[in-house]
Amino acid sequence: MDAFIVTCEHGGNRVPAPYRRLFRGQRALLDSHRGYDPGSLVMAKALARDLAAPLVASTVSRLLIDLNRSIGHPQLFSAVTRAAPAQTRAQIVDQHYRPYRMQVERLIRQAVAQGHRVIHISSHSFIGELDGKVRSTDVGLLYHPGRRGEADVCARWKESLAASAPELRVRRNYPYAGKGDGLTSHLRARFAQSHYVGIELEVNQDIVLAAGRSWTALRRRLIDSLGTTCAS
């Protein structure tokens, strides 16, 4: 039997009080797509509610530390925090990074111990145009092609969306490669294919920022189609 867990690594652009001095004069940067993923937390909350799934979410800016990067990855810290003393960076890891990752792993281990296969949806959003290149996609479903369970869920999810919302442009492993560094890759190394299915959901921020009925309708269709996919 499948169990869901929903996470949101880039849900906000909050900077905890002890580190605000590092970000003086950086409000515009924090409010940009580099500071957080607009819409990702709203999507994650809706998924968790409708799937009756636990939600692990962070509203701390990815510019403080990127929870979707491995320790040692060059983008774990932003240019702002890379300039901070090593002791400060270690403190950030201990206070914000490790507890988040440990909580996600604990929930997965509990579900696996109860005999479930865990379907993990990591909620993200992406900027519609980057470096002058328009990303002509509404939704990206990211997974590791070598893990059959992930490939199967994403293929069926895409088919379900094509049937229920044919106007949506949905692509697999776009705008990023699903097997790249990230929380799902970390968890794949911890759990067998039969126990863990890790999928990153990427939604175009052009839809998110437009708000209104189109954004509400997209959330509903994504959730309904995922439910149909996993029930079949």
If you had to describe this structure to a student in words, what would you say it looks like?
The chain has 232 residues and is of the alpha/beta class. The protein has helices spanning 27-31, 40-51, 79-82, 86-113, 148-164, 183-188, 205-210, 212-231, and strands at residues 2-8, 55-57, 117-126, 129-130, 133-134, 139-142, 170-172, 196-204. Helix 2 packs across helix 8. The radius of gyration is 17 Å and the shape is globular. The relative contact order is 0.17.
Annotation keywords:
Aminopeptidase; six-stranded mixed sheet; globular; alpha/beta; two-stranded antiparallel ribbon; 8 helices; single chain; 8 strands; 232 residues
Strand count, sense and closure of the main sheet?
A: 6 strands, mixed
Architecture, according to CATH? 3-Layer(aba) Sandwich
Shape: globular
In terms of DSSP E residues, the strand content is 15-25%
Find the structural class using helix and strand composition: alpha/beta
Look at the structure and give the mean pLDDT.
Answer: 95
Total of DSSP H or I helical runs spanning 4+ residues: 8
CATH topology: Aminopeptidase
Using only CA atoms, what is the Rg?
Answer: 17 Å
Keywords: Hydrolase
GO molecular function, one term: hydrolase activity
Protein name: N-formylglutamate amidohydrolase
Pfam families: FGase (PF05013)
